[in-house]
Amino acid sequence: MNNTSKKILVTGGIGQIGTELALALRKKYGADNVFITDIRDEAPAIITDGGSYDKLNVMNYSDVEEFVKKRGINEIYHLAAILSGKGEENPFLCWDININGSMNIFKIAIENKVQKVFVPSSMAAWGLGIQKEDVPQESILRPTSMYGVTKVAGERLSEYLFLKYGLDTRGIRYPGIISCETLPGGGTTDYAVEIFYEAIQKKQYTSFLKEGTKLPMMYMPDCIKATLDLMDADVDRLKFHGDYNVAAFSFAPEELADEIKKIIPEFTIDYKPDFRQAIADSWPASIDDTPARNDWDWKPEYNLSTMVKDMIEKLSVKLK
Ligand SMILES: NC(=O)c1ccc[n+]([C@@H]2O[C@H](COP(=O)([O-])OP(=O)(O)OC[C@H]3O[C@@H](n4cnc5c(N)ncnc54)[C@H](O)[C@@H]3O)[C@@H](O)[C@H]2O)c1
């Protein structure tokens, strides 16, 4: 398929990742070929200024199917989901949206000959009994959060549908994603975004994760690059489907604070852990992403200090 014959649907397209992925897809394939949707009535100007936006609830099978048929959609990036923090507040809703919503997308894709479907997984797929450092691609998956349970089920579904129906499903176990375009939507790594807003505006931040909670993280440009690179990869090279490990860097809250202090010396941090601490404690500290590097040449561009410098530069302009 050449680029102009692609017709791409993005669900959950005005969330933290969806917004920046949508903009990157428009740039790569042309705004007329990318259909940004979300359950919310209104989209921000950054989305509506450059192309279409439609309200679309992934729980409504007939609406989504009609949308796919009418626009001749042949590729889907399915980002609509309930994240880890919100998922623990309402586990049944989390299961419903993350599993039944994804099932709708998968079934519609199979029945309408959609060629590729991208559904993200997460480091939340891990849990009890894992190797904390450099957790390998093929490892035990015993999540303790409902969000994690839905991510493991989603990974298995992706692979099952590839094997059974030949649906070209692809997915990445994203680490915590740091960005400044759109606020995160209720996850356990949200502190690593909030801290920048508070550092710039108040010079102080109270972290909901305690000192020493080292987690894998990634800057948004690398998240977008990983997503587009995986979707571009030759399917014959892919040994995995819905669950590629990717890694960039890892840090604990105090290490991020130290890096921020290099640019904003008066910044201070204190700690008041909440229910998200237990979720974070079940996740790995670092990830081994050898199969992604071998199968589709994955390589991140940002490290902790280049990410912090870029975030502060961009956010300082935005918050002026
Ligand atoms: N942000 C991260 O750090 C991170 C890390 C790992 C995995 N992920 C995964 O990446 C994907 C996108 O995450 P995000 O951070 O952009 O989340 P987000 O919460 O910012 O965005 C999700 C979007 O889905 C929309 N949505 C919710 N229910 C919907 C429905 N029924 N129909 C249509 N849209 C609906 C929301 O309005 C929201 O805009 C998710 O699958 C998430 O699990 C994110």
What does this structure look like?
The protein has 320 residues and is of the alpha/beta class. It folds into 2 domains: 3-175 and 220-245, Rossmann fold, CATH 3.40.50.720; 177-217 and 249-287 and 302-318, UDP-galactose 4-epimerase, domain 1 (Alpha-Beta Complex). It contains 12 helices and 14 strands. The strands form 4 sheets. It has a 6-stranded parallel sheet, with helices on both faces. A 3-stranded parallel sheet has the order 6-8-12. Helix 2 links the parallel strand 2 (34-38) and strand 3. Helix 5 (91-111) packs parallel to helix 6 (146-165). The chain is globular and about 55 Å long. The model has no long low-confidence stretch (mean pLDDT 97). The structure holds nicotinamide-adenine-dinucleotide.
Indicate the topology.
Blueprint: E1 8-11, H1 16-29, E2 34-38, H2 45-48, E3 53-55, H3 61-71, E4 75-78, H4 84-89, H5 91-111, E5 116-118, E6 121-122, H6 146-165, E7 168-170, E8 172-174, E9 176-178, H7 191-201, E10 204-207, E11 215-219, H8 220-232, E12 244-245, E13 249-251, H9 253-261, E14 268-271, H10 276-281, H11 290-296, H12 304-318
Parallel strand pairs: 1-2, 1-4, 2-3, 4-5, 5-7, 6-8, 8-12, 9-11, 10-14
Antiparallel strand pairs: 11-13
